[in-house]
């Protein structure tokens, strides 16, 4: 009897424990086990957002094209090596494939590398999903689908498309991947406006067959739609941009320069009408191998704002502005050029060693006289000249809406010795960007106001809401009266200057040349120069254009290199602005 009671007790206890456990699972921990069960057969996938487009002058500069992520279930692939060879043969038909599926630098056979990589992924039989390639063109995907290879699947993975090829590439930047494999803009507009352009990814949760790993077509699914990125509308004039890109490439080759860069600004608004450089790159194929026989390596930077250089004599216009506007000199100021100027152990001479006796401001500019500019800087004093340099925007970022802007260099006041002051008067010892210099001359042209340069005029989001970016003054740097005096002086500098190309131009131009020796190992190399010309139509003043050639080898002087190039460009673009010859 006691044994029966004991047996009954333990039996009932067992039933009680089972009931208690079922209560815990079904009631207390119901949500936990439900989530665990769902996780076993429900998986979430990110839905990429459509990246915003970029427009210029009513045309599409950057858009998107259909492309796919190619993935596979290795458990369903019977011949990993054979399938890998077939896939890579199709992938490599697309010239852009390697930009999104790069090969390590040490690998010299991209096809063999990808075939081995994909074969290794397909051999992982313990996995049900592996990514084989990103952003594969729609044409290649259609061809692969026609091969009837089991175990492959494809998901949308749009890529950037450039209807006008590499036009404005240093300005637009490019799109690659971040460390998590998501689209990320780099450089230029793509980098600066990445947060606006990329939109917001969506998400879809589907039911999957636990045995095969395939989605259940009639199963439950939950989808959060992706939100498209905003579109950008630029200030760029595509006609002007096209002319400049063609001519800068011609100029670099013709004069044997290392590179060339250009900026065209609307003087009144600060809007960038054209900007770029040669060499450049193809934003749609940014990892492509270097072309055989091309001596110019790809350049991803926007040289107009991402490189700092000593400007040379083009700075003389700013030195005159400082002297006149501060009241340190009057338009009647004169100096005597009676030989080289000696300051301690340093001797400052004219560029050609000639000396001209008594000279005025117009003659200083016409002959680009370094002795006169140095004497003028000493007359102004270091506090005043440095202050005007800073006010004109040198030594700090202007705030343009592009990634990669450099600040330039204006030394601390305590570092300005007398010789540094004299040298600064003609653009030595000061580091600027082309964007800073053209913006400074735009201020001279527009009546004395430094404008914030900008590339995007408006932004339109997915809901059609429009954000306009109005012209933004930074500060007044000189008075309107000083501006008018300078514009006239810069006109006389052109018409009475050393350049035959400018003298023969049938348009009246205000501007200044700059031939700046490049410092090498602490000394200026007379055989290496930066050649610059910046100018604008004297009467219209609607735009200011700067062109710079880095180390032209056919001649070290701007008058015989960059100035003829600038004149050729001006003749082509003046009609686009409705400007007629006026001399």
Automatic annotation (TrEMBL):
Its main location: membrane. Residues 47-210 form the Penicillin-binding protein dimerisation domain. InterPro entries: Beta-lactam/transpept, Beta-lactam/transpept-like, PBP_dimer, PBP_dimer_sf, PCN-bd_Tpept. Keywords: Membrane. Coiled coil: none annotated. One of its GO terms (cellular component) is plasma membrane. GO terms for molecular function: penicillin binding. It comes from the Bacteria. It is found in: Membrane. SUPFAM superfamilies: beta-lactamase/transpeptidase-like, Penicillin binding protein dimerisation domain. PANTHER family: PEPTIDOGLYCAN D,D-TRANSPEPTIDASE, PEPTIDOGLYCAN D,D-TRANSPEPTIDASE FTSI. This is Penicillin-binding protein 2. It comes from candidate division WWE3 bacterium.
